[in-house]
Design a protein that fits this description.
This protein has an eight-stranded parallel beta barrel, surrounded by six helices. It starts with a strand and ends in a 10-residue tail after the last helix. Helix content is about 45%, strand content about 15%. It is of the alpha/beta class and about 350 residues long. The chain has helices at about 20-25, 45-50, 70-85, 100-105, 110-130, 175-185, 200-210, 235-255, 260-270, 275-285, 290-295, 295-300, 310-320, 335-340, and strands at about 1-10, 30-35, 55-60, 65, 90-95, 135, 140, 170, 185-190, 220-230, 305, 325-330. Helix 1 (about 20-25) runs parallel beside helix 14, helix 5 packs parallel to helix 6 and helix 8 packs across helix 10 (about 275-285). The protein folds into two domains: about 1-225 and about 310-340, TIM Barrel (Alpha-Beta Barrel); about 230-305, no CATH class. The longest helix is centred in the C-terminal third of the chain and has 21 residues, at about 235-255. It has 14 helices and twelve strands.
């Protein structure tokens, strides 16, 4: 199974762990992934990383669709692709949520299904450079002819000769968008995917692939997990799981509107509906510590690789058998190195 290294987005300051990234590349990691919320962007750091690495793939998990027009996103990734030497870039795209789309970017939430479909189609047309780009979509059209248009928009073809094969991966989790992902994208960055819930998605993926005349070999899927290596004791495992709960509470309780929160819906879909309601209730009441404590150990454990090495190895095998082609790791240097061992990468021996 391929491995990725998760960097996420910044806190108050942007610090790229360059030595960890280089170490992951030497260990045989396939990819490194950035993200964006409403602080640091996801593309700029990859240009810096490209200059300090040689082969590791450079992906966004994800850029927010509302933050850029599809033409601007296509330009940015085509530029990054050439700076990185070609063939290393993965354009990971997601819709984010209505609070960020409308509150941060000042864009309408619209109809995400059709917005994704239009966005991907326009980017692929731009990269192909077969003709000046036109697109008549349900959400996005080129040239623009809506309210406020002067009516003089001109179809254009990129000056830069772009790589037509830049892969597009979509970050999705709902039935309609997962099916669409398999149909129109090259890969999938699933929301809340764990071995225990993998079966929920297989039919949707197969239906999307069949609609496009594709097979599983044409499609990558990369889940994500947090790895924490602990001592061999139940207390150590519980303590490590507890460190992951505040982030879960943030996303389930506060990352989205009370009535429209994809992370909460994912928790419900995985069989933790009562806990999801309680976590959100406590978090919105600003009782954040209690919200974190209300996250079940089992829920966190399903999505993480936590514990002594023997426990992690056993759990890792379940990830290998659950239908994904890759796994993105969040963790310290020890975790990054041990994940390479778990994946049996052809690597140099670990150094102290």
């Amino acid at each position: 199974m391929k491995l990725g290294l998760n960097l996420g987005y910044s806190g108050p300051n942007l610090v790229l762990p360059l030595e960890k990234i280089k170490r992951a590349e030497r260990l045989g990691y396939d990819s490194v992934w950035t993200a964006e919320a409403y602080g640091s962007d996801a593309i700029t750091p990859l240009a810096y990383i490209a200059a300090h690495t040689e082969r590791i793939r450079l992906g966004t998990a994800v850029i927010q669709l509302a933050g850029r027009t599809p033409a601007n996103a296509a330009m940015a990734f085509a530029t990054l692709d050439q700076l990185a030497g070609g063939g290393r870039v993965i354009c990971g795209v997601g819709v984010s949520g209505p609070q960020i789309v409308e509150g941060w970017y000042g864009q309408p939430w619209g109809r995400p299904y059709y917005r994704i479909k239009d966005y991907v189609s326009i980017m692929k047309k731009i990269w192909a450079r077969e003709e000046p780009v036109t697109h008549e979509g349900r959400e996005i059209s080129l040239p623009f002819a809506g309210e406020g248009a002067r009516g003089v928009g001109k179809p254009l073809k990129s000056i830069l000769h772009m790589n037509p094969d830049i892969p597009v991966w979509l970050g999705t989790g709902m039935e309609s968008t997962v099916r669409l992902t398999a149909e129109i994208a090259d890969g999938w960055l699933p929301l809340g995917y764990v071995p225990e819930s993998a079966h929920l998605y297989q039919r949707w993926i197969d239906e999307g692939l069949a609609k496009a005349g594709k097979t599983r070999s044409d499609f990558e899927a990369q889940a994500g997990t947090q790895m924490i290596v602990t001592k061999d004791s139940a207390d150590a495992v519980r303590t490590a799981l507890a460190t992951l709960k505040p982030v879960t509470a943030l996303y389930v309780g506060g990352m989205g509107h009370k009535n429209l929160n994809f992370h909460k819906e994912m928790m419900v879909r995985r069989g933790f509906s009562d806990a999801a309601e309680r976590v959100q209730e406590l978090y919105l009441a600003k009782r954040k510590d209690e919200a974190a404590a209300a996250v079940p150990d089992e829920f966190v454990d399903q999505g993480a690789l936590v514990g002594p090495k023997a426990r992690i190895v056993k759990r890792f095998r379940r990830w290998e058998d659950c239908g994904v082609t890759g796994l993105t790791i969040s963790g310290d240097t020890e975790a990054i190195e041990f994940a390479a061992e778990c994946a049996r990468l052809n690597t140099e021996p670990a150094v102290a």
